[in-house]
Amino acid sequence: MQWVVIVVILVVVIAFIALTVKVVPQQRVGVVERLGKFNRLLSPGLNILIPVIDQVRIYHDLRIQQANVPPQTVITKDNVQVQIDSIIFYQVVNPEQATYGISDYVYGVRNISTATMRQIIGKLELDETLSGREKISNEIRIALDEATEKWGVRIERVEVIDIQPPTDIQEAMDKQMKAERNKRAIVLEAEAAKQDMILRAEGDKQSKILKAEGDKEARIREAEGLRQAQELEALGQAKAIEAVAAAEKQRIELIRSAGLDEAVLAYRSFEALEEVAKGPANKVFIPSNAVETLGSLGALGELFKDKKA
């Protein structure tokens, strides 16, 4: 019996502690009601309550949460049914309003998102719907922000995950897409051929220009070389003439300085005629002035004497 009393006391103590001490994790907050009326919020850490009088009605997670919106079938402006999947990211910023402003804010956010989506898509045609995900997401977020402001919930982001048109529309779009791709491929191929022809023509033009410039440069260099060669040859001839003239001048000056007169020169000519006379010729022509000079010297007779002998 004593053990039973002890166990009952322990249970009462544990229950008392459980009702008095509340440990709240980080990024969570509890809403405390005292006798059924909002009293205060429990912040992260250790909190003390008055048992039985104070009660924690709900805990809110202050981190960003996500809510998937079930796929919705909506009709576009041009009467095409499309199925849209979306997801909403939200955050509780006022736990008191999130507790007492609406019974289920997640359910409310989904309903408002669905209604807003129908209104937006009803103003858009199919092509605008398929290409306007960002626009649709922004308009849904703005509409949700206005509605959830009183609920203590802030909409962080709305993402349209998928927009699925009907099967026949999808097949027609696939065919159109293939036709567009084929058309683009043909255009690109023609453009590539055009560029190829242009580049080849440009290359041929550049090649001809370079060849003409090369021929021109070669002819210029050849003419320049010929001119320089002629100039060098003329210069060499001029120097040779100057050298011959200088030698002749020196020779004349040496003769003059040696005192050679006309008689000596005639005698030297006679010596040369003597050598000629030793040859097979029967006649020897002698300049008249040489004859006169040699005759006076008596040498001419000796010459012909030897010839007769």
TrEMBL record:
SUPFAM superfamilies in UniProt: Band 7/SPFH domain (SSF117892)
InterPro entries, per the entry: Band7/mec-2_domain (IPR050710), Band_7 (IPR001107), Band_7/SPFH_dom_sf (IPR036013), Stomatin_HflK_fam (IPR001972)
Gene3D superfamilies: Band 7 domain (3.30.479.30)
Band domain location: 19-177
One Pfam match: Band_7
Protein name (database record): Paraslipin
